[in-house]
């Protein structure tokens, strides 16, 4: 059997399979602990990055929805609804991610303003300095509010 540590560098998929087998069999002394910790920490970071990405996307489109009513589209509505849904699903699977959402809310609003400014070609100062949306408004999207026509 190839050393598990060597597999990490040469065949990541096989490394995952072997690591799972070793864990199931209780052969903890053979685990590649260093890389296992690295991967677990990376998974946590990835989950947090997804929360931030979805939050920025919701707020960006909410800003566009507010400031360019004449250009509203089903695509914008879908983006608002879908990314809010993704946030809620993340919190169902990992309730502790809600703390991260709360911690980065204002920072993500700043990023959403910049993205909305670029996309709409409106000056950044067009958008309120403080987020006009409450956290619950971002999470409790009513799809009926985003019907066009």
Q: Would you give an account of this structure?
A:
The protein is mainly alpha-helical and 149 residues long. The chain has a domain at 47-146. Helices cover 70% and strands 0% of the residues. Helix 1 packs antiparallel against helix 2 and helix 3 crosses helix 5. The N and C termini lie far apart (64 Å). The mean pLDDT is 95.
Average pLDDT works out at: 95
Helical fraction equals 55-70%
Low-confidence stretches: none
Element order: H for helix, E for strand: HHHHHH
Backbone shape? elongated
Overall strand count: 0
Terminal Cα span: 64 Å
Strand residues, percent: under 5%
Outline the biggest β-sheet.
none
- The gyration radius over C-alpha positions equals 21 Å
Quick structural summary:
The protein is mainly alpha-helical.
Summary tags:
0% strand, 149 residues, 6 helices, single chain, mainly alpha
Secondary structure elements and pairings:
Layout: H1 4-10, H2 12-24, H3 33-67, H4 74-93, H5 97-120, H6 135-139
Helix pairs in contact: 1-2, 3-4, 3-5
């Amino acid at each position: 059997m190839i050393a598990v540590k060597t597999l990490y560098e040469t065949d990541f998929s096989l490394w995952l399979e072997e690591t799972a087998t070793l864990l199931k069999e209780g052969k903890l002394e053979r685990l590649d602990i260093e890389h296992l910790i690295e991967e677990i920490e990376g998974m946590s970071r990835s989950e947090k990055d997804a929360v931030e990405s979805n939050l920025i996307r919701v707020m960006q489109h909410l800003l566009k929805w507010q400031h360019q009513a004449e250009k509203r589209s089903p695509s914008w509505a879908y983006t608002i609804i879908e990314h809010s849904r993704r946030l809620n699903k993340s919190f169902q699977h990992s309730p502790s991610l809600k703390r991260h959402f709360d911690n980065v809310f204002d920072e993500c609003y700043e990023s959403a303003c910049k993205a909305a400014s670029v996309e709409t070609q409106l000056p950044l100062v067009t958008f309120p300095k403080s987020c006009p949306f409450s956290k619950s408004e971002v999470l409790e999207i009513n799809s009926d509010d985003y019907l066009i026509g």
